[in-house]
Amino acid sequence: MLLWVILAALTAVVLSFLLYPLVGGREDVDERDAFDAAVYRDQLDEIEADRARGLIGEAEAEAARLEVARRLLAADEKAAAGAEAQSRNALPRAALVVVAACLPLAVLGAYLFYGSPRLPDQPLTARLTDPAKEKDVGVLVARVEARLRAHPEEGAGWDAIAPIYLGGQRYADAAEAYRQAIRLLGPSAKRLSGLGQALVLEQKGLVTDRRALRLARALKRDGTLVEPRILLAIAKEQEGNFEGALADWQGLIEVRKDDARWTSMIEGRIASAQAKLSGEAPVAEAKPAPQPGPSAADIAAAQSMSPDERQAMVDQMVTRLAARLEENGDDLPGWLRLVRAYTVLGRSDDAKEALARAKKQFAGNEQAIEKLDTLAADLGLTS
């Protein structure tokens, strides 16, 4: 409330300074005109006194009187014009004064009517310690973050906030929190699993060897964890090892066959892996994800690595994908991804060769040829 009173007062002061030249500036001009007229009248009296004492002649006195009289008349006319203008502007000036006085009052009255000036202040510290906010996750997270800023070596805080970051899709923050918790409290199955999940999700599902190693370490400590096993199976799919992925999925369904949260997803993965192995998946129904081999998004995700690691990872993935397509050339999504990867890497000759081999593989399949031609047009390749 006090703040609004101060703002209203400041508004009134500013308006008064802005409107003063329009409201009160004419008074100074009128005072100068009146002073000039008084001076000219005194000069007329002095001229008459000098003529009477014989200091100046009659002709000189007459000339001086005429000049002073002319100036006096001009001053009187100017004063009269100013008075007339002031009378004409009386109403606008009054309106300006009313605006300057009433506008702050109107704003303040509107706030008092529509606002809530009686609500007390709510500083951040008071909000964070308010028991009524205990169920507000955002407040709890802010409280823990404030605590960790003051006590960065408190492992329990990092261990508590890491899963919240992960659930809130703040994957980079989750990975850092898990690292700190592992550093301060030591590795555990859940911490290693959470770190692996955060790193994989941060890179949009790309499971590299280093991330797979963390997941495997978590699984070694606790074989009942589901998330590491899922991600490790996906890693095998990304490598083109559908047989190994199928074995992992089947083992997982045995462990979680009564858990409805996972059953549907795992069964779908099993069916997809079996179709890949048998070559029965129709081209038109092939699922685009997860696909082995690098996509443009995968290669972009590798920018967080060092140049040597990034190049080694990309080359390894492209080589594995090309080798798998040599063995099983019926995987249209694999060919599309290989052509795209070669193009992103600047290997246009390899991309054209892969495109030609794919067209040869799917000769007679109009849907497949159409997809290959569309990709070639998008990438600027000529076959």
UniProtKB/TrEMBL annotation:
**Gene Ontology cellular-component terms listed:** cell envelope; plasma membrane
Q: Which GO terms describe its biological process?
A: cytochrome complex assembly
- The protein depicted here goes by the name C-type cytochrome biogenesis protein CcmI
For whether the record's keyword set contains Transmembrane helix, the answer is yes
| Record's subcellular location | Cell envelope
Q: Which Gene3D superfamilies match?
A: Tetratricopeptide repeat domain (1.25.40.10)
Alphabetical UniProt keywords? Cytochrome c-type biogenesis, Membrane, Transmembrane, Transmembrane helix
Q: Which organism is it from?
A: Methyloceanibacter stevinii
User: Highest lineage ranks of the organism?
Assistant: Bacteria, Pseudomonadati, Pseudomonadota, Alphaproteobacteria, Hyphomicrobiales
- Annotated membrane-spanning segments are 94-114
NCBIfam families annotated for this entry? cytochro_ccmI
Matching entries from InterPro entries are given as: C-type_cytochrome_biogenesis, Cyt_c_biogenesis_CcmI, TPR-like_helical_dom_sf
Q: What is its main location?
A: other
> Which PANTHER family does the record cross-reference, listed alphabetically?
CYTOCHROME C-TYPE BIOGENESIS PROTEIN CCMH (PTHR47870:SF1)
Source domain of life is Bacteria
